Amino acid sequence: MGKIFGTFGVRGVYPDFLNEEFAIKMARAFGTFLKSLKDEPKVVVGKDTRRTGESIKESFISGLTSSGVDVIDVGTLPTPLIQFSARFLKVDGGAVITASHNPPEYNGIKLLEGNGMGLSRKKESIVEDIFEDGKFYKAPWWDTRSRSSKDMKIDYFSSVLERIDVDSIRSRKPFVVADEAGGAGALILPKLLEILGCKVLSVNSHVSGFFSARNPEPNELNLKDTEKIVKALSPDLAVAQDGDADRAVFMTSDGKFVQGDKTFALVEKFILSAKKGPVVTTVATSNIVDEVAKEFGVDVYRTKVGDLVVTGKLLEVGGVIGGEENGGVIFPDLVLGRDGIFTTVKIVEAISKSGKSFEDLISGLPKFYQIKDKIRVRGDRKSAVLRFAELVESEGYRVDLTDGAKVIFEDGWVLVRASGTEPIIRIFSESKIEGNEKKYHDFALSKFIEANEDLEVES
Ligand code: MG
User: What is the per-residue pLDDT across 281-296, written as a single tens digit (0 to 9) for each?
Assistant: First the structure.
């Protein structure tokens, strides 16, 4: 039997893979696990805006209550707010019914620790074993539990307001175009920005469960229409979220797409100027993050790719901010996971307090030249990356194997890494010297092909 849990919990197409029977079974496995730790466990459950979410959530809740677990149903919310709820309500676990940025026919289940963080791999594999064995705790009639409902918006809004300088935003009144993809962000972000005194134009905020306005993955290709709106209206900034609003990407007032590395570095700078502490990011993120950290004399820890590992490291080292190159930022003080809502608020605050434009803040960051490329490869991608690593190491290059193979140069690096979900190899390169990013990219591509002569590669 293959593993059920991937990098993002369980995810698949409804109803072939993920359906109500699956959800009940998964809830029973999770409930049985929680019952083995505590007599009366309590779990927070919420969902994103997908059409199938209601039915999956109801089944999941019924699986928990019939396993002797009390449930607090927080309804339809962005993933970060569900994670926030678990921590705020001091429960023993949580579950988010979401398929993040996947198309509308998908759904998924992401299990949480009591503090709202994604469930650790170790615990996930215990739940997986219970799921496979089917040895569930079936509560006798007197131990079946109940569900209560709670609206968490006010608690989240208050917690956000406690952490920012509202007055500076209210006096600047930034104009923000917010594209929520018809996802869960639409239920929170426009309202929150209005409360903060922003002028908001909400785009794709119709929550139908179909993501009919645009694909919920916020990449340049899917944001072409939003770009036109931004160019026509010149807001102070534009934000676009993925389906469950844990990620946010940004555009400047002239519709230029800002790389996730840069928005992360901007937020990092802003956070560190208020409170110094360790920074955590992955091996795939730009060295801008290190240069910003150097200005404040703090350490940067680099992990494998994935928000769960970044969050785990943040807790371990007492970090103040964590993030990824794809626009995911983690504020461990508020939510133990990526929060695309608070990221937006922090950027709005940074603009307001500085009195500068978003463009100026971005161009004020240390400059690096980058290439983010991917190639399609058939066959065993992980072994192919290892063969590449062996070849370049044997030629005397310095290679970091934290995740994939990262060749380190004096003025930059190139990372060759197999995607966990698609048949592709990502090649990211960067340098402080213009032109070298291309040199390092081409070097890695040719060495990768040389090390894997039998492999079919399409550029
Ligand atoms: Mg997401």
Answer: 999 999 999 999 999 9
